[in-house]
Design goal:
alpha+beta, 4-stranded antiparallel beta sheet, globular
């Protein structure tokens, strides 16, 4: 089961979906292209990425 990010809207914006519950990995895809490619991250790497986002370690996109 895929779930959209909490920042996703139905207006066609830039959104991602993840498929939680798969052991040791987090699959990620573009919500506008559900049949397109999927990136698969190790769970620890995904957790570190999300923590960095929450901590403001990446500048805002322009």
């Amino acid at each position: 089961m895929w779930i959209k990010s909490s920042y996703s809207h139905d207006d066609g914006g830039d959104c991602i979906e993840i498929a939680p519950g798969i052991p040791d990995v987090v699959p990620v895809r573009d919500s506008k292209d559900p049949h397109g490619p999927v990136l698969v991250f190790p769970t620890g790497g995904w957790s570190s990425f999300v923590a960095a986002l929450k901590g403001g370690e990446f500048p805002a996109a322009v």
